[in-house]
Amino acid sequence: MNATRQLAGIGFGLTAYAMWGFFPLFFRQLAHVSPMDVLSNRAVWACLLVGLLLTLRRQWGKVAAVFGQSRQLLMLTIAAFLIGSNWLVFLWAVANQQVVASSLGYFLTPLVNVLLGLVVLKERLNRLEWVSVALALAAMTNEIVSLGSLPWVSLVLAVTFGTYGLVRKQLPVDAVSGLWLETLAMLPVCGLYAFWQAQAGHPVFTGHDLRTTGLLISAGALTALPLMAFAAATQRLDLASVGMLMYINPTLQFVTAVWLFGEPMQSARLLSFGLIWLGLLVFSWSAWGKYRQPR
């Protein structure tokens, strides 16, 4: 792999994950707006802003080329469904003081990437990678047994984002064009939701105070920037490397949840985090060993 290309991929990945890590601080300011309302505004404003960027860069020809590829359109629609579901669950978690659970989900994502590589890409796992997967499964078992419920927030976030990364990695579509098409694919669902809410007398896109409107517009930009950086990273790095950089996001979310938001940290959940962190340590050791092997 070209060293410059790999270095650029790491830079894009660091940018994306650092921005996502601070998302709870931003979206907590919109806790008074329903998660689906925020999602709809994110999709609309991100689509408009990315469309403006495509116009300024004169890259609509790339978008037109994708419209001639039915398989790519289908894959982008799947990607839109995955990332939209991820956004919605994350927004719900922030609004309902479940940022610790969302942090656990994003810690799980690298190990989901490993499993997806095994099942979908037919990659082979070494002994250490199997150990890391086993530790992740032990953590989820502890969550279910100790807390008495399925950790659905953590699992949905991990599976949707891990699968989204896999789909985007296999798409030969540049970051900006891909993001515009993904947000475009979300608009029919958001439009139907807005129409349904309007019938009940609830405007989704209007009627907010000036501060809330500014935050919702800003959410579009904050949605676009890290996703473009993430897509650029997935095109330059292997899936394992993308997964390892992922640690930055949940670490920042965890610190935010516990030290800034004051969310409770049950001892049982602390054990789950301990197992996940141990699994990530084992996985990182394995990845480092692969990196040091002569190419």
UniProtKB/TrEMBL annotation:
Membrane topology of this protein: Multi-pass membrane protein
Record's subcellular location: Cell membrane
TM spans (from-to): 7-27, 39-56, 76-95, 101-121, 128-145, 151-167, 179-196, 216-233, 245-262, 268-288
InterPro entries per the UniProt record, alphabetical: EamA_dom, EmrE-like, RarD
GO CC entries: plasma membrane
Keywords: Cell membrane, Membrane, Transmembrane, Transmembrane helix, Transport
Residues in EamA domain copies: 8-139
Family recorded in the similarity comment: Belongs to the EamA transporter family.
Protein's recorded name: RarD protein, DMT superfamily transporter
Lineage of origin: Bacteria, Pseudomonadati, Pseudomonadota, Betaproteobacteria, Candidatus Accumulibacter
